[in-house]
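hey so i finally got around to running the thing on that chain from the lab meeting. sorry it took forever, my laptop kept dying and i had to restart like 3 times. anyway pasting the input first so we r on the same page abt which one it is
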Amino acid sequence: MWLLYAVGSAFFAGLTSILAKCGIRKTDSTVATAVRTVIVLIFSWIIVGIVGSGSQMASISGRTLVFLILSGAATGASWLCYFKALQLGDINKVVPIDKSSTVLTILLALIFLQEGVSVPKAIAVAVIAVGIFLMIEKKDVEKKTDGHGSWFLYAAGSAFFASLTAILGKIGISGVESNLGTAIRTIVVLVMAWLMVFVTGKTKEVGQIGRKELLFICFSGVATGASWLCYYRALQEGPASVVAPIDKLSVIVTVIFSYFVFGEKLSKKALAGLVLLTAGTIAMALI
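ok and heres what got predicted. didnt touch it at all, straight out
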């Protein structure tokens, strides 16, 4: 069943990117992140109430709680970077860079979680890495230092923190029901996101969000909640080195929707990269 949860996570994650992009055309990305986190938090705790795992709160060990908090902090940092990158750059450019966290996550999982290293897995990781490389345009990397290319730095930051999230999350949910673990870490993300809003002096912008964009932000929060619930259930039951790359297949959903919604097209080189990324990920799931 963890495989189905991982696929569900990928679908909702891809949908999240599209909905979020629609919600931050005029709204500041930090403000949007804070607002959507409220939706995710509500969604997460409703699920906790439904499955009845709230009673486990008192039995959570200190070690588990620490890793859940660290995972939440890493998620918050990844979100802030990711949605800033989405606001500044094209979604088809940002998402592949963000998905490069797959390679780092796999390596960390193989090293620190001792999930096993084999020649087929190594080849699959290499294929994924090549696919991601092909999807990143060289001209986009060269622009990273100017005003129009700063999205690249935010996307790279998002990838780094996302890889930490997966590893810390895997350790954190080993001693707690996955839905409860997700809800607890969402509290950390919420605090972090709103703290950034206050620190940057953007509290007034919360009340200035347009109704249409607010709707998209809320929908993206619901999609994120669904993705998280699927992702951490998959992490709890399956190997992180396989769950993480399957989750990153959300790039396929993103590419398809971005074509119809934003008219963004992939170059032949990027399309070849997408094929390799998909092939490597499927191989990881089957090995």
